[in-house]
């Protein structure tokens, strides 16, 4: 299966919500309400009013322009604009001369799918031939530690952990030290789910980040927030509050296959100038797809006909 087909299948609910409605709009004779109807369709995908207003404004400007254009119609223009919505900020593992170990700190609220995503990331990097170590930083739940240990056994990846209730910052410290001493390529640190409004827990997250930075010196750190795509606009508050606690470098949108509001990816990227690193479209390790803006835009807007 091609990557485009994986995107199309994984984003089926959003595609059905958008592409079919846009098909219907484009097939009928254009009326004076065309832009208003298009705006309503785009808003239904949870892109957010600011993004949609800008898209409609840009579309109207393009339609008034007398200049030659590579776009065949309004749909092609919108696809291009959506693809351009995502900032080009390469991840640390995409840099030409990465500093080893590459540290990935994974954060987010309870139930977003962090621990499963950490395991999927480990599987992905291991399949690419990289050595990986995991840090079980969710010390609040014994089940979370056990879950990561089981994933480690399944993937033949070492897992640094302590007993339930231990200081999560010390787990992060031990994980980085182990990665350095063993010359491991990538260290992925899981953290406990926490509500973004709990100041004490967010302060603890800041402490974990500062400790990792101290151990890594000037080396860049990837701090990824895992977001449940099914919550739509509610994700904005999560990104804002977590971004105040730690410098976020990217987002992973889980459960994208379970929502018709996949447009939230566009809204979040525009709102915070953050790239989407991966999207989750299923339960298997292979269902964590590296995000491709062009494929994303085409898979939810482009007609199959």
Notable traits:
305 residues; alpha/beta; 2 domains; 12 helices; Four Helix Bundle (Hemerythrin (Met), subunit A); 8-stranded mixed β-sheet; Rossmann fold; 13% strand
3D structure, described in words:
The chain has 305 residues and is α/β, with parallel strands linked by helices. It has 2 domains: 3-83, Up-down Bundle (Four Helix Bundle (Hemerythrin (Met), subunit A)), CATH 1.20.120; 97-248, 3-Layer(aba) Sandwich (Rossmann fold), CATH 3.40.50. Helices cover 49% and strands 13% of the residues. The chain is built from 12 helices and 8 strands. Strands 3-2-4-1-5-6-7-8 form an 8-stranded mixed sheet, with helices on both faces. Helix 1 packs across helix 12 and helix 5 runs antiparallel to helix 12. The longest helix is centred in the C-terminal third of the chain and has 18 residues, at 199-216. The mean pLDDT is 89.
């Amino acid at each position: 299966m091609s990557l485009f087909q994986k995107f199309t299948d994984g984003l089926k609910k959003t595609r059905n919500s958008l592409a079919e409605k846009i098909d219907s709009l484009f097939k009928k004779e254009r009326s004076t309400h065309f832009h208003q109807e298009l705006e309503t369709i785009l808003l239904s995908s949870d892109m957010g009013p600011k993004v949609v207003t800008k898209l409609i404004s840009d579309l109207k400007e393009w339609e008034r322009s007398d200049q030659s254009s590579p776009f065949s119609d309004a749909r092609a223009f919108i696809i291009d604009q959506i693809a351009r919505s995502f900032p080009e900020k390469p991840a640390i593992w995409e840099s030409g001369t990465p500093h080893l170990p590459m540290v990935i700190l994974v954060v987010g609220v309870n139930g977003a799918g962090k621990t499963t995503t950490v395991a999927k990331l480990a599987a992905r990097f291991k399949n690419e031939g990289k050595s990986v170590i995991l840090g079980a930083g969710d010390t609040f739940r014994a089940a979370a530690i056990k879950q990561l240990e089981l994933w480690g056994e399944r993937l033949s990846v070492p897992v640094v952990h302590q007993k339930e209730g231990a200081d999560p910052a010390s787990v992060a410290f031990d994980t980085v030290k182990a990665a350095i001493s063993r010359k491991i390529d990538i260290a992925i640190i899981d953290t406990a789910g926490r509500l973004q409004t709990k100041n004490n827990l967010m302060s603890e997250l800041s402490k974990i980040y500062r400790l990792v930075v101290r151990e890594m010196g000037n080396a860049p750190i990837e701090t990824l927030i895992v977001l449940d795509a099914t919550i739509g606009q509610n994700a904005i508050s999560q990104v804002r509050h977590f971004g105040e606690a730690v410098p976020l470098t990217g987002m992973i949108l889980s459960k994208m296959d379970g929502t018709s509001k996949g447009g939230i990816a566009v809204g979040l990227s525009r709102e915070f100038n953050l790239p989407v690193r991966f999207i989750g479209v299923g339960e298997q390790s292979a269902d964590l797809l590296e995000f491709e803006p062009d494929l994303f835009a085409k898979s939810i807007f482009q007609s199959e006909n």
